[in-house]
Write a structure and sequence with these properties.
Length: about 350
């Protein structure tokens, strides 16, 4: 990051930049931090960026103004706004600016309900804030910056298939995402099944800290993770749905086993979540390859061949308790949409 930004450019900045980023779904998950304040993970993780599930972030810098945070049209204060302001301050300090920024965020999918809205939020904010403050960052540096907002956001800087390398350094300089494959490499079908539109009660931040501290299965989660990463990485490069799907399901169930065996237990599923899992099993029994994965919430993402997304989405929509099914696939890189 450029700490030497020329003074004449930062003293009276008046800029408004809009950035956009897609959410992502982890196939090998991030669950547990070796450093809480820097969002440094114990393990690597691997994801697909989700086309059409987007957050748009507008960052505005005006000298002498106070900072405002607007989330989906609502002026917000409290911990959520503080977290966003703290993130914008990282960029402000890197730019050597005294002008605070305001942010307006809009997501086109249910936020804070287990579709990694924090991933698209902080990836979009990273690209918009860096451009607004005139800090020129590489994609790797943007990934490091986005990671400071939310770990999974490090992966949403890149479209297609992405791997977040955990790194070893205590300052996090080697903990960033890299692109594994472009979206065009493999047009996987991804059905996002919404079972509950309300915000979840335990966010991933506190959920993973609690699980790491209290589940007796956490060490097994860590030691078995590398094999899953290797299989999913290979499966993506070979476009092998069976290998990717089976391994992603297994990795997801291990993450939830760790959560379930925390004290007190963390149960992210609703009855409809289980109904979707059963529907996926029925689809497979009927010869349609479909595989589920679930993050820290009740929603389910189902992977299938792109040509079968219509049949798969229709079957999932019929599962008891399902509210709606969004059709997605590998999405694009986080990018600046407009700068003024
Ligand atoms: O980035 P966070 O702090 O919202 O954590 C995301 C955790 C999971 O979504 C459950 C897994 C992952 O790798 O995205």
């Amino acid at each position: 990051m450029n700490h030497q930004f020329p003074d004449h450019l930062v003293k009276s900045v008046e800029r408004r930049v809009t950035g956009r980023a897609c959410s992502n779904v982890a196939l090998a998950k991030y669950w547990g931090k070796r450093d809480v304040s820097l969002n440094l993970p114990y393990t690597g993780s691997l994801s697909v960026t989700l086309d059409g599930l987007e957050t748009t972030a507008t960052v505005e810098i005006e000298s002498g103004k106070t900072s405002r945070t607007i989330l989906n049209g609502v002026l917000t204060s409290g911990p959520e706004a503080d977290r966003i302001r703290g993130f914008l301050d990282l960029v402000r300090l890197a730019a050597g600016s005294r002008s605070v920024a305001s942010a307006e965020l809009a997501s086109n999918f249910p936020v804070a309900a287990g579709i990694a809205s924090s991933a698209s939020t902080f990836a979009a904010l990273a690209v918009a804030a860096a451009a607004a403050y005139g800090v020129s960052l590489t994609a790797t540096q943007l990934s490091i910056l986005a990671r400071r907002g939310s770990g999974s956001a490090a992966r949403s800087i890149f479209g297609g298939y992405t791997e977040w390398l955990p790194g070893e350094a205590s300052d996090g300089t080697d903990s960033f995402a890299v692109r594994l494959a472009e979206p065009e490499h493999w047009r996987l079908g991804i059905a996002v099944v919404i079972t509950n539109e309300r915000p979840k009660s335990v966010g991933s931040r506190s959920g993973m800290a609690h699980a790491a501290k209290t589940s007796p299965f956490f060490p097994a989660w860590l030691t078995s993770h590398e094999d899953d990463l290797a299989d999913i990485r290979r499966g993506i490069l070979d476009r092998n749905l069976t290998l990717v799907g089976e391994t992603a399901e297994h990795n997801c169930l291990k993450m939830h086993a760790v959560s379930l065996t925390s004290r007190p237990a963390l149960l992210y599923w609703k009855p409809a979540t289980l109904a979707v899992i059963e529907t996926v099993y029925e689809l497979r029994a009927g010869g349609i390859e479909a595989y589920f994965t679930i993050d820290a919430g009740p929603q389910v993402k189902v992977l299938c061949a792109n040509e079968q997304i219509g049949i798969v989405a229709a079957a999932l929509a019929n599962a008891p308790g399902v509210k709606r099914v969004l059709r997605s696939g590998p999405g694009n890189d986080a990018h600046v949409v407009e700068a003024a």
